[in-house]
Write a structure and sequence with these properties.
Structural class: mainly alpha
Strand content: under 5%
Helix content: 40-55%
Order of helices and strands: H
Number of strands: 0
Length: about 55
């Protein structure tokens, strides 16, 4: 059933600027989520989490 229908979600009526804004917003979302996942992983991997930041 999946191969019978070709589904492409692209709005041809949308202008270039709104499309680029959508793309940048999605990119920013992934960057922010990745950043906070990295921070969380560093906190979980630290041996003494009560000491604060150490270089």
């Amino acid at each position: 059933m999946l191969l019978r229908y070709h589904f492409v979600f692209f709005d041809w009526e949308e202008g270039l600027l709104p499309y680029l804004l959508d793309a940048v917003a999605i990119l920013a979302l992934f960057v922010i989520v990745g950043h906070y996942l990295s921070v969380g992983a560093k906190r979980l991997g630290r041996k003494n989490p009560r000491k604060g930041r150490e270089a």
